[in-house]
Amino acid sequence: xxxxxxxxxxxxxxxxxxxxxxxxxxxxxxxxxxxxxxxxxxxxxxxxxxxxxxxxxxxxxxxxxxxxxxxxxxxxxxxxxxxxxxxxxxxxxxxxxxxxxxxxxxxxxxxxxxxxxxxxxxxxxxxxxxxxxxxxxxxxxxxxxxxxxxxxxxxxxxxxxxxxxxxxxxxxxxxxxxxxxxxxxxxxxxxxxxxxxxxxxxxxxxxxxxxxxxxxxxxxxxxxxxxxxxxxxxxxxxxxxxxxxxxxxxxxxxxxxxxxxxxxxxxxxxxxxxxxxxxxxxxxxxxxxxxxxxxxxxxxxxxxxxxxxxxxxxxxxxxxxxxxxxxxxxxxxxxxxxxxxxxxxxxxxxxxxxxxxxxxxxxxxxxxxxxxxxxxxxxxxxxxxxxxxxxxxxxxxxxxxxxxxxxxxxxxxxxxxxxxxxxxxxxxxxxxxxxxxxxxxx
Length: 442
What we know:
With 442 residues, the protein is α/β, with parallel strands linked by helices. It has 17 helices and 6 strands.
């Protein structure tokens, strides 16, 4: 009796937990992604002829999930399947004789058996005399010659097989990087949604809009970092939406920074503080209306949906993304920022703003991706914080000067005019000193 048996080890599964039965362990996301991407190629040697294969699987959840991915891959190849996936306890119990007896009793001529190790390796060795090392997701195709039930008592008659082909399973770690990046971005998007609701619930709390803006900048930093691996159109659309939302918050941020400076100045009059509070409150009301509008709400929801479902470029979906590639891009970003810091002149306002932004991007990326980049990457990024803070002080001084100059064009009470003039002078003095020190360093 001749049959074709394809033995498969389940995909990469989550580690065993003390509170979980082994049979309930599931595939990791990376394990599922890896199989989904690689199974079509692994099955390229498959020839079923006029047979209608059947998939048998261990009742373990990880094996059932693997069988479902196998079923999907076979259907994509237009391979007709006899029935739905069947559970077979012998695969969970790793009972070789039990499986062979069930094969003998079955009418199926072509069977895929999804199980575990050492069973997968043992059955190939017992039947074919070879032991291919099955990594998770590995496949071995056997032409099995089964002894008829009537001849089982004949010592000379033995079940045996010929190994037709073997396909090693995918290295799931190559997809773990994509999974981690997606999970980090999804979590950030969920935080942003919460920040937005917090702002709507308590718009007068300065920190709510500040956190909302900061988390959007964090998400934009992630998107800029993964740009080489993400679908170009999706990345550009998401960035454009987020850029526009941040633009709406820019004036609010400047007013809040200026009000904070005014309150920290012991010489600020009550009239100036009241003026600053009123300006910030009026802008906050406008911003609240903008963010709650139907158009911005639709755009915001679109950006969050895109962020939660990153479309990776096809070649990375198929082959995964090694951690070394991600680290290489991070190192290049750090070296680029360092090089720009070496030649940066604070008198160049545009470049100062750009370098500060990229320094922050490096820090955000490192802090949220330590498991991929390594702890030393976080230390490297944090080492740039002093530069980032110094550049931030210069950028804030310039913003304060512009803001005060616009205020002074209005018809304001004399105490407010006087205090604004003093604050502008303080910011101009700070900026002048910073530029002179920068010139001396150069």
